[in-house]
User: Which sequence fits this backbone?
């Protein structure tokens, strides 16, 4: 009898609890929903990841509604202000377009719009060794070393020296943007760097008259090392050879010929003969 009472009480408790839960659920579901409208503004964003130099088309952009109180400064809202222009900075998907990332409308696309004012893009020939096994990629920074041999006279030692520091690489081969998801080495035969006009002269002379080598550096390292270079004699620990000065001995002046009408006397001293003029009074 006691078990029956306990069972009945348990069933009633479960039934009451279920009924209460169901009633609470229905009450919550029937509550009026309050919606808040946030003002938005159309913003032109990248439809996919875009490389430097890309010429933008309708397929590269899309328009999304951005919260009006969080719109970036100078953001572009009209697709006409983007289509047909070139990128001077890389962009990722859904990143808003800003004027600072775009070349002027008449500049076109490709590498030229990405060259900052006052700098020049100069290409140099590289191989697997000079290009640091393919790790010299767009966006990396390098130091440039040159090794030069003695001139035509053959005087002096072979010398190596750092001639440019913290030079930015803008292109490796024909690619002007790094693979952001891979960062794998890329074997190329030409590397393009950004230099000033004066640096372009030094780099051109170095690549023409000597052998250049690129030294990859940490992009966070802004130091400019000052080196004196090294000569072959210092590398081997032997004294440097001093170029010998060439001494030229002046030839003895030849005696002036005597006038034909002057009276002369021939004087014989041993095996030497000489003619001397006789003064006439």
Assistant:
């Amino acid at each position: 009898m006691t078990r029956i009472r306990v069972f009945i009480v348990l069933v009633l408790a479960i039934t009451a609890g279920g009924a209460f839960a169901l009633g609470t659920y229905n009450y919550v579901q029937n509550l009026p929903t309050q919606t808040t409208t946030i003002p938005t503004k159309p913003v032109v964003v990248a439809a996919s990841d875009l490389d430097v130099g890309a010429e933008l088309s309708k397929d590269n952009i899309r328009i999304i509604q951005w919260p009006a109180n969080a719109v970036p400064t100078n953001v572009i809202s009209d697709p006409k202000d983007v289509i047909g222009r070139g990128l001077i900075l890389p962009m990722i998907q859904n990143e808003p377009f800003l004027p600072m990332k775009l070349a002027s409308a008449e500049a076109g696309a490709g590498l030229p719009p990405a060259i900052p004012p006052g700098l020049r893009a100069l290409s140099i020939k590289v191989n697997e060794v000079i290009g640091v096994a393919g790790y010299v990629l767009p966006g990396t920074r390098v130091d440039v070393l040159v090794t030069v041999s003695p001139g035509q006279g053959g005087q002096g030692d072979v010398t190596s020296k750092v001639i440019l520091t913290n030079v930015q690489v803008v292109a490796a081969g024909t690619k002007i943007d790094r693979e952001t998801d891979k960062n794998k080495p890329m074997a190329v035969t030409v590397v393009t760097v950004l230099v000033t006009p004066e640096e372009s002269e030094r780099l051109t002379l170095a690549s023409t008259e000597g052998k250049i080598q690129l030294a990859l550096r940490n992009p966070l390292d802004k130091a400019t090392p000052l080196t004196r270079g090294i000569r072959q004699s210092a590398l081997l620990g032997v004294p440097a050879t001093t170029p010998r000065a060439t001494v030229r001995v002046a030839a003895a002046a030849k005696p002036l010929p005597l006038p034909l009408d002057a009276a002369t006397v021939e004087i014989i001293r041993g095996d030497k003969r000489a003619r001397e003029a006789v003064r006439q009074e």
